[in-house]
């Protein structure tokens, strides 16, 4: 049995176990809402590659470690404090993080065996990256899904330019630009989750996956499906007609103008949210999602790797919108980012275009071999 679990290097931040034909991965960084470190990404990649090649493993499930007395978190994203420190220090590990994370995202989308994501609680950013490629995405009424990157001067990466673009209408633009979180009903409706299991049934579900008989991939899937509830909670749903009306506008300035002209509480609140985001990175984000509708996942990930390089390096770390956004949210915690430019009217179209120019030739691109 031991040879089914390769040596892991993340110092317990990833836990691996095997039950019958099922390999289980637990993200074990609960104090950080199971946010991904580079070591965790490497361990997940090693496990999935190992289990893909082992016939004894027929299915994989991934979950987040719980927090005693606190709401659950599947994965709150990447380790943004590391991003900040590495960018300022010129640490090459920053580039390694994104290259290896995007490779992991691609691996999950193309994993040859059923991969089940148990998305209980907070699922943000990098957590979406390791769940959206799953064969079975399981949600509870505690699930809250979001791509909040524009709030830190970044863009929705980890394949977000592709999977948000698959959402109906202009929901993808709304999710990408605002970073708003969505609950189970909307997530299921928009193709960001597959099934709903009530929170009261999660302990028994996890126990069965860990210790119940799991002789086949079909049995693993059946273990989940027998607890599926076809009636998710009737929480307030997003105003899709408003989303399409405003976020279908051709430019970022037009979206804001459309919201300003609408005399309703939803438009006012949404506009206020956008005015807190980085104008430059919202413009980059809007272009990414709209390009994403015509890209394969592999091409989107290559484009995102270009964009994330520019996010940290195009202006230098000291003038990076992303470094500034992380500073305001997680380092100084003053929640007062000094965006440059401060308003949408100051965004330089040439600077936005520069984000989409790859710093690598096709032969040199770090993700050149993704197909």
UniProtKB/TrEMBL annotation:
SUPFAM superfamilies: ClpP/crotonase
InterPro entries: ClpP/crotonase-like_dom_sf, ECH_dom, HIBYL-CoA-H
Pfam families: ECH_2
Record's protein name: Enoyl-CoA hydratase/isomerase family protein
NCBIfam families: PRK05617.1
Domain Enoyl-CoA hydratase/isomerase: 23-356
Keywords from the named record: Hydrolase
């Amino acid at each position: 049995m031991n040879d089914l679990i390769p040596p892991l290097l993340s110092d317990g931040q990833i836990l691996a176990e095997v039950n019958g034909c099922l390999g289980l991965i637990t993200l074990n960084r609960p104090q950080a809402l199971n946010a991904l470190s580079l070591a965790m990404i490497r361990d997940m990649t090693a496990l999935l590659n190992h289990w893909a090649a082992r016939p004894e493993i027929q299915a994989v499930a991934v979950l987040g470690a719980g927090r005693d007395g606190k709401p659950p978190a599947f994965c709150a994203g990447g380790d943004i404090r590391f991003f900040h420190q590495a960018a300022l220090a010129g640490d090459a590990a920053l580039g390694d993080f994104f290259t290896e994370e995007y490779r992991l995202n691609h691996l999950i989308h193309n994993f040859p065996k059923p991969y089940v994501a148990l998305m209980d609680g907070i699922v943000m950013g990098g957590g979406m990256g390791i769940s959206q490629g799953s064969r079975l995405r399981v949600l509870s009424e505690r699930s809250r899904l979001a791509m909040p990157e524009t709030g830190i001067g970044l863009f929705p990466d980890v394949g977000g330019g592709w999977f948000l673009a698959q959402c109906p209408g202009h929901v993808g633009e709304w999710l990408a630009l605002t970073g708003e979180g969505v609950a189970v009903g909307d997530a299921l409706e928009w193709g960001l989750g597959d099934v709903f299991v009530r929170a009261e049934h999660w302990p028994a579900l996890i126990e069965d996956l860990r210790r119940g008989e799991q002789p086949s991939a079909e049995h693993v899937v059946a273990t989940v499906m027998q607890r599926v509830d076809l009636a998710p909670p009737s929480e307030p749903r997003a105003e899709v007609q408003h989303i399409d009306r405003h976020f279908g506008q051709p430019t970022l300035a037009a979206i804001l103008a459309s919201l300003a002209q609408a005399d309703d509480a939803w438009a006012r609140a949404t506009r206020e949210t956008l005015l807190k985001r980085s104008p430059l990175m919202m413009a980059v984000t809007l272009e990414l999602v709209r390009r994403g509708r015509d890209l394969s996942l592999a091409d989107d990930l290559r484009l995102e790797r270009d964009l994330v390089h520019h996010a940290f390096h195009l202006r230098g770390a000291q003038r990076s919108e992303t470094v500034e956004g992380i500073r305001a949210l997680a380092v100084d915690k003053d929640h007062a980012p000094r965006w440059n430019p401060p308003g949408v009217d100051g965004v330089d179209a040439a600077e936005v275009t520069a984000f989409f120019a790859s710093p690598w030739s096709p032969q040199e691109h770090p993700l050149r071999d993704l197909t």
